[in-house]
Specification:
The longest helix is centred in the middle third of the chain and has 112 residues. The chain starts with a helix and ends with a helix. The chain contains one helix and no strands. The model has no long low-confidence stretch (mean pLDDT 94). By secondary structure, it is mainly α.
């Protein structure tokens, strides 16, 4: 009787070991799959981090370029303003020359007529 009980216990324990081993293998497989997934997500995260850093650098570079272009625009606007002022001054001088030339022409005419 004791022998039968021991045999049943041994069989039960053997079955239990079999199922535990099967469960352990399944858990190992699931664990390996999860490790692969976590590694893939970590790699993706690292890629995103690098992309974000590159975008930050690109953004900073564009901000600097924008400031440079704004400065160039200011300088060119100043040149245009100075040129416009010079043009106005030139036109005034040209008008004065025309008036002087006209007055001289009239004076010469008057002198010839006298």
């Amino acid at each position: 009787m004791m022998l039968e009980e021991n045999q049943r216990t041994l069989i039960s324990m053997s079955e239990l070991v079999f199922f535990l081993n099967r469960d352990l293998k399944e858990l190992k497989f699931e664990n390996e799959n999860l490790i692969v997934q976590v590694n893939a997500k970590n790699n993706l995260l690292e890629s995103w981090k690098k992309l974000i850093e590159q975008l930050k650098l690109d953004n900073k570079e564009l901000e600097n370029k924008n400031l440079q272009l704004k400065e160039e625009l200011k300088q060119k606007e100043m040149i245009v303003k100075i040129s416009e002022e010079q043009l106005k001054k030139y036109r005034k001088e040209e008008k004065k020359r025309e008036e002087i030339s006209k007055a001289l022409g009239e004076t010469i005419k008057e002198m010839k007529n006298k």
